[in-house]
Amino acid sequence: MKATDFYYQIEPVIPRRLQIYAKRATAAAKSQEPPATKKSKPLPPEGLLQRNLRSVTPGVKIWIDLDNTPHVPFFIPIIRELERRGHKVVLTARDAFQVCDLAEEKGLSFLRVGRHYGKNPVMKITGLIFRSLQLLPFYLRQRPGLSLSHGARSQNLLSNLLGVPTVLIADYEYAQTAPFTHPRWTIVPDALSPEGLPSKASHVRYYQGIKEDVYAPEFKPASSLMEELGLREDEMIVTVRPPANEAHYYNPESDVLFVELMSRVCQTPGVRAVLLPRNRQQEQSLRTKFPGWFEDARTVIPTRAVDGLDLLWISDLVVSGGGTMNREAAALGIPVYSIFRGKTGAVDLMLERQGRLSMIRDKEEVWSKILFARRDKNRTPDNAPRAALRDIVDHVEDIIRVEHVRPRDKGKARRA
Q1: Considering the entire predicted model, what is its pTM?
Q2: Is 54 exposed, middle or buried (0-12, 13-18, 19+ CB in 10 A)?
Q3: Fewer Cβ neighbours under 10 Å: the N or C end of the chain?
Q4: Are 202 and 226 contained in the same domain?
C-alpha cells in the first residue's frame, strides 16, 4: 500500500490542522507551472564564494534531526563548518538502529526523541505523526530558524506546519515522501536530475561528488578494531550489510542474493564475514534461520556501534544491500558490490560507470562477479579535501539569505 493511498483511508481522523495544510499545499501545487524537465544549472563554486563575500549571512539557529545511522558521521563535518561560520546547531536523534549509540560515541549533544515503528504502513504513518508531536516541545524551547536533515520526515512534517523553512539533503531520487513532509529545499549530488525529487526544480541545489565525500577525507584508521572483533591478519575479511527489509524500497530479491553470498562466504576457507544487521530484530532473525553461519565464528557481529569507515578499512571487500555503506567503500577506494535490488539511483549508476562499484543482479553473479581477493591495507587513505562539504554548507547559507531567516541574536551577523 502506498503512503498516499493510506492517507486517503485515514483522512477523516487526521487532525484538522493537517487537513488544512494539505488543502493549501495541494492548491499551491496546482497553481504552479509544470516543473522543468531539464536540470537547472548549479551555481558554480566561485560564484557562491563571490556572492558570499558580497553578502552578509546572519548567524541563525539550525535544527538538525538525526534519523538514521549514516546521518551521524555525515553531519559531524557539516555541524562543525556551520558553527565555524557563526551559526548555532541544535540536534535531535531518533532512537532507531544505532543512531543514538553512535551519536553518543562521537560526542554529540542531542535530545533523544521517538523510535522506529517497523515496516507496517499503518504504524509507519502513525509513528510519523506521533514523533512529530514529540518533537514539538523541543521546537518550542529552541525556536530554530531552519530545519536541516537527510530524510527526517517527522521533522519536515512539524516544520512545514509551523512555517519553518525545511532543507533536505538527499542522494536517492526514488525515496517516497509521505504527505505533508515535502521539504521546501532539496540539496542533492550533481549526478541527479530534478525529476522525482520532493522540491520543485527551482528549489533544488546540487553539490559535487557524493555525500560520503563530506566525511571520508577526515578518516584516520584505528588500530584496535581487528583485535576487538577477533579477526586475524591472515584471513580475508568480507563486510556484509543485509538488505533493509523494513524500508519502503525493499525488494525480496535482495535477500535471495544476500543468502547466496553468505553461503559462499561460509563455504570458502580462510574467509570471515563481519555482518552488520540493521537492528536487534534482524540479528535475532538471522541467527535463528541460519545458525550455520555463526558456527566456529565464521560470521562475526560487532557487539557495539562501530565506526563504519574503520570497519570498511580492515575489510578486503564489501557487499551491501543498502546504499550508504556501498558509497562509503567507494569513497575509500575499497572493492564493493551492491546486492540492492530496488530502483537503482543515479549515484550508484555513476559509481558503476566509473568502476568504483559493481552491481550484482542475480545469484550466478554472486559467484562469478564478486572477486574474493586480498587487498593492500598498508596504504594510507586519501585525505585530500573534496568539494561536497563546501558546496552543501554554501547552499545552506544561500538558502538562509533567500528565506530571510531571522538571526538567532538580533543585530548580529557575520560575513562569510
Answers
A1: 0.80
A2: exposed
A3: N
A4: no
